[in-house]
Amino acid sequence: MLYMKGNLHVHTNFSDGAHTPAEMAAIYRDLGYDFIAITDHDYLLKPRYWESIPESNGDLIVFKGIELEYPPLRYQHIGKILGDEETLYIFNHPHQYRLSIQEVNRQINLISRVMPIHCVEVTDKGIYTKIYDTPKIPLPKIASDDAHTFEECGRAWIEVQSRRERDAILRAIKQGNFRIGLKQRPAFI
Ligand SMILES: [Zn+2]
After folding, report:
1. 34 alpha carbon to ligand 1 midpoint, in Å?
2. Which of 43, 94, 116, 176 is deepest in the core (most CB within 10 A)?
3. CA dihedral 89, 95, 97, 103 (to 10 degrees)
4. What Cα–Cα distance (Å) separates residue 155 from each residue in 6, 121, 145, 186?
5. What is the CATH architecture of 3-182?
6. H or E element that contains 86
7. What residues flank ion ligand 1 with Cβ within 5 A?
8. Residue 98 C-alpha to ligand 1 middle, in angstroms?
9. Cα 164 to ligand 1 centre (Å)
């Protein structure tokens, strides 16, 4: 099976990003990605957000998604990615909150009472945060670039072994059937 290159964390001008969903989809298509998820902030969302997200751009699959804020836990952000039947939840950038490994596990356990957490983001704005890429956190680890502008696209990604189909991609991620890709060497340890 082929590896499908994708980014599960993208912002647009429907929250605090600079460009439209269609413009962001076009740049990732040009970068050779197979899929992206548009994940704007829930607390900044502008009207007509969901309708603005294209289904695809040529060969690029575009997932609808959202970045949820979970206020009980120091405003922890959770990526929610919608497939056809599948939904994927990601514990985002623990480095931004300077969480210890124990705190990450404790927060995931607490959040899991209201929504399942399937994987953990081990990048912070596209920079690899090695400390969280550990078996002590017993979930698959994803990389993303959390792009808000064109210049931020393509910094970190995942390569998923899957059929070219929405739910198959999300299931493969839940099963850990992917590897992470990084443009830069680790900077945050
Ligand atoms: Zn984000």
Report:
1. 20
2. 94
3. 70
4. 11, 14, 5, 11
5. Alpha-Beta Barrel (3.20)
6. none
7. 67, 146
8. 16
9. 25
